[in-house]
Every structure is written in structure tokens, then in C-alpha cells.
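Moderator note: this is an archived Q&A kept for reference. The question asked for a predicted structure of one protein chain; the sequence and the answer are reproduced below.
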Amino acid sequence: MDKKLLLLLLVIPLTAIILTWTIINSSVRQGSKVVFPDQTTHKTVADTFFNNTTIIDFGDNGLPESKIIGKQLFHYPDKEDSEIIAPIITLFRAVGAPVLVNADRGWINKDGTRVLLKGHTVIERHKSESNKYSRLETPELTIWPDRDYAETDKAVKITSEATIATGIGMKAYLDKEHYYLLNHVKATHIAAKRNKK
């Protein structure tokens, strides 16, 4: 038998087997493919919204303990939290400068006891006779204003007059100005400027 004819007789059935296997396999994969609906076609519409919102929490003594200002506040059906755009939070202190917090976006629960902040988030306290300067930056932060407590599991940078500290994850006791960085902590000392005469 001619070698070319033998090779042709082997190649034709082998090609048919490979084509059949490819077609069957492709149809099985198409049948098992999970199709997710387009999320952009069903946007949730807010049932309530406010422009230039101010929320003030007063203490038992009648003085404000915290204030939250936002460009816009949206509440959505079936959601516990309300979304706040460009939130600015002021935590008042009996002594010393207030603690100022701002972020790109935030979500606040219905009783105002928890605020989740995302985007460029900054906690800052300006120097006064009773406290030192501090500035904290992170991409995400959860604050409990009534407990003066905040935490994050994201990257954090804390700047004071004498140091710059960075780390991943943080617990902050804002009333005592105690910040605890949890992982990958690095600190740099800022040398004091000497007065030149």
C-alpha cells in the first residue's frame, strides 16, 4: 500500500475525531457558562436626599458633641445606612481644638453612631494650648463618634510635629489621641528646626 494513501486514510479520521471533540466540548462549556445580569441597567433610586446636610449630635449637657456636614445625603430603599458625599465631621472637645475628619464619601447608620468613610480620608487636630498637632491619612476608616473610636485595616500615615509613622491597620482612641498601628509599622523622626541667630 502506498505510504501517502495510508497517511491520508489515518489523517482524515483523526481530523474528524478532533473536530467532533472540539465542537462537543465548546457546546458543553457554553451551556455551563454563568451569565450575570448587567448591573448598570438597574440603578437604585434614592427615596430621600438632602443637599448641604448638617447633622449635629448634642450631649446631655446641651452642647454639641459632634457635627457631620455633607454636600449631599442619600437614603436608598431597604438600606440601613445613608450615603453622604464629601463628609466633614467635627468632634468637639471640652478642652483643646476639635478633631476634624473629612473624606470623599461616607455611609452613616440611621442613629449616627457609626460612620464608614472611603476615599482620601483625613483626621486632623490643630495645635492648641491643650493638645499637639496630629494628622492621619488613610483610604478607608470607620468611626464611632459617640465612643471617640476609629479603626481601619488599610494603610495609614500619621504625621505629628516630631514624627511620621506609617503602617497597615490601626485602632485610634480619638479622645486620648492614642493611635495604634498594627502591622508593617515604620516611623521617621522629624528633626526640630534650630533657631539661627
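Archived answer notes: Residues 31-42 have pLDDT under 50 and may be disordered.
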